[in-house]
Amino acid sequence: MQAFSQLLGGAPPPPPAPTTRPVEDELARVLSRSFDDGSRGGRAAAAQFVRLAALACGVIGRRHREAALQLTRLYRAHDPSLRPPLPPRPAAARRLCLSLHHSLTRTGFSLCSREEEVAAAEGHFGDESVWNVPVAMEWEQLDGALVDEEAGGFDAYAADEAAGRGVARPSWAHKLLLYSQGETTVQKRGYFVVAKLEEMAVRALARAGVMSWSLVHAALGYSMAPLLGVCKRVGSSLEAALRTANPLWADRLRQQTERLTSPTAASPPPLGRRATDTSIACMPLGWWSLFEQTTLRAPAYSHVLVVHRHADAATHAHGNAHHVSLGLFRNVPKVDVELLLPHQQVCMPAFQRSQFGAMAVLGVVLASPLLHQEALSLTGLLTLYTFGAYAARTALRWRSTKQLYQQLLLSYQSANRIGSSDGALLYLAHLAEAAEKQTVLLSLRTLLQQQIDRAPPLSAADLVARNEAVLLSWGELSHLPLERHCDARATADHLARLGVAEERGARLALKPLDEAVAIAQALWDRPPLDDREAIERELAGG
């Protein structure tokens, strides 16, 4: 409670030594042991490194708490869960998105690209009941002014392109922003009998299709070449026409054209196609596998942030037309990214749609002769009643099935959600603080080792490579929840803000250890409010 009151009131935090977070304390302790060789100088260097690490973590934590407070104050007028005392200005929402974008890019978040969207459209890794359930966006329920520069919004994709980090825009780029950070693997274990039977049937049909196509190709020989050429040209023309309207449809058309014109494209995907892809489509299946438990794994994002604005502000945001909705999720499979988008509506799968259609056609075919001859007889009336009852039952079953799929979709979104609105901002501030502390501690250790070895200074890229090598090769760090991705530009910025490293051309070198400790101590002794203007400049300009 005391820490929470200090966070809200802006009071100075407790002294940084010892480090208040177990992960940072353990990381600093493990890194310092590399300098303690048993000599007096080694023990002194290890002790000085621990002190420098504690001071650096304290300064970083204080600055991030102040940044979190400023972002929270800035977001208060755009929080859809609160009724603002005064209507916010449209430019304030753009400033909020700009500040949030710069904070996210420094933390390791990046905008999702069209390639990631296409990969996510192939299937779902969520609950097995919704694997093959298609979803559709209700675009009219979202206000695209939030990301439209002409309407006063913030175009994050244009900002990244200007900064040299441009990616292809996904189909939702005109309505919302979706950021991802980190990579992990999610898994689940079960029998998955229905999914295995479906995959076995698909493989059998694929093999039959390949054999039939091979026989036709062998019988007709080179006479099939002109037909294949026509199919490719027609597919290319349609793809070029669709690419301006919907790039996702164009990519799907190109894939289907390749499958049609290539005899080997209809075969099942090769086993072990990706190291982390052990889905049912990529594993050997047989009748024995129906009675064995299977572990499925899929590559996933550590965190995903969705930024959007509802079109119906009266219903979703207490009438605040300039609100900004935030949704933070974790451990999201890459193929399930589209399931996190707001205002998603499930559609009936093609297989179930064909089942309902076949039942309706069969009922009409069987009942129409009887109703045509004896419609007003007792038999005809009973037949008509039965036909109507089954039609009503089918319609109700259709509706209940869609409701079940919609509930599964909402439960899946709720299970992965870890924060909304200001809660998401505070969690993001915690992620940014932890990432910067980890980067700074690893960089200080590497630069101090270079100084002890009297080695030449390192470039930012070489420094990041050394840090990643430490994370991968040191077994003592394997149990710590550390991020394996570092950015050279962010690393240089973190060290520049602390002032403990000096630039020699395009390379970095640690200042003398005693001088670096004195600089960090001076930063810690400085009043916390002196950092406010610097933080405002960082949030506004990256």
Spell out the key features of this protein.
542 residues, alpha+beta, 4 domains, five-stranded antiparallel sheet, three-stranded antiparallel sheet, elongated, disordered N terminus, DUF3754
β-strand number: 10
Runs in which pLDDT lies below 50 for 5 or more consecutive residues are 1-20, 263-278
Main sheet overview: 5 strands, antiparallel
Structural class: alpha+beta
Overall pLDDT level: 79
Task: Give the termini separation.
Answer: 32 Å
The sequence of SSEs as H and E is HHHHEHEHEHHHEHEEHHEHEHHEEHH
What is the beta-strand fraction?
Answer: 5-15%
How large is the radius of gyration?
30 Å
Tertiary shape = elongated
In which range does the helix fraction lie? Answer: 55-70%
Integer count of domains:
4
Q: How are strands sequenced across the largest beta sheet?
A: 1-3-4-5-7
How many alpha or pi helices? Answer: 17
How does the SSE layout of this entry go?
Elements: H1 2-9, H2 22-32, H3 40-76, H4 90-107, E1 110-111, H5 114-120, E2 135-137, H6 156-162, E3 177-190, H7 193-220, H8 224-245, H9 247-261, E4 294-308, H10 313-316, E5 325-333, E6 344-346, H11 350-373, H12 378-416, E7 417-420, H13 422-452, E8 458-459, H14 460-473, H15 488-498, E9 501-504, E10 507-510, H16 513-525, H17 532-541
Antiparallel strand pairs: 1-3, 2-6, 3-4, 4-5, 5-7, 8-10, 9-10
Pfam families: DUF3754
Structure in words:
The protein is elongated. The chain has 542 residues and is α+β, with helices and mostly antiparallel strands. 55% of the residues lie in helices and 11% in strands. The chain has a 5-stranded antiparallel beta sheet. A 3-stranded antiparallel beta sheet has the order 8-10-9. A two-stranded antiparallel ribbon has the order 2-6. Helix 3 packs across helix 17 (532-541), helix 4 (90-107) packs across helix 17 and helix 13 (422-452) crosses helix 14. It holds the Pfam family DUF3754. Residues 1-22 are annotated as: Disordered.
